[in-house]
Amino acid sequence: MNQLLTHQRLPVTLWDWYAVPSVWRSAYIRLSLLLLSCVAAVLATGCSRPIDSSPAVTVEHAISPEPPQVGPATVILKLADMAAKPVSGARISLEADMSHAGMAPVLEEAKETGPGQYEAHLRFTMAGDWVILLRVRLPGGRMLERQFNVSGVRPN
Predict the structure, then answer these.
(1) Which of 18, 30, 132, 155 shows the greatest Cβ crowding within 10 Å of its Cβ?
(2) Do the Cβ atoms of 78 and 116 come closer than 8 Å?
(3) Contact, 94 vs 137, CB < 8 A?
(4) Which of these, 62, 54, 115, lies nearest to 89 by C-alpha position?
(5) Count of CA atoms in the C-beta half-sphere (13 A) of 104
(6) pLDDT score, position 140
(7) pLDDT, tens digit, for every residue of 113-147?
(8) Domain boundaries, the chain
(9) What is the pLDDT of residues 83-116, one digit of tens each?
(10) Strands 91-98 and 106-114, bridge-based pairing
């Protein structure tokens, strides 16, 4: 009965840690990892801004050369608001990925060439189908994500 009422103190020093049975040590490690994972998840979701997928801003795109081929390509983007007015001052990053796994993504930043018009130069590294993800930060700080497919990139 006395043994049920007594409790072990937590290990404080390294010597105390080695004196703890391996079953308890394993439990402490698992509990610590679980707690650390929970804290990381809360911080990751609490510190990020929500991505807006509403059609408040329209994004038109074109790729040159047409049809696209392996090598350099130019992506032309046009941003407009609901009233069809050009959206200037946005920051746009592009991530081009092949539609199958195993290839490194191609990352580029678009530069504004005129009111609401942006241009990015990227390089298709392989023939096949590609997906381009746009991450747009509007002048007010709001974030948008858009995605479009580039089918049938041809070999040289």
Answers:
(1) 132
(2) yes
(3) no
(4) 115
(5) 4
(6) 86
(7) 999 999 999 999 999 999 999 999 998 888 999 99
(8) 2-46, 51-153
(9) 999 999 999 999 999 988 778 889 999 999 999 9
(10) antiparallel
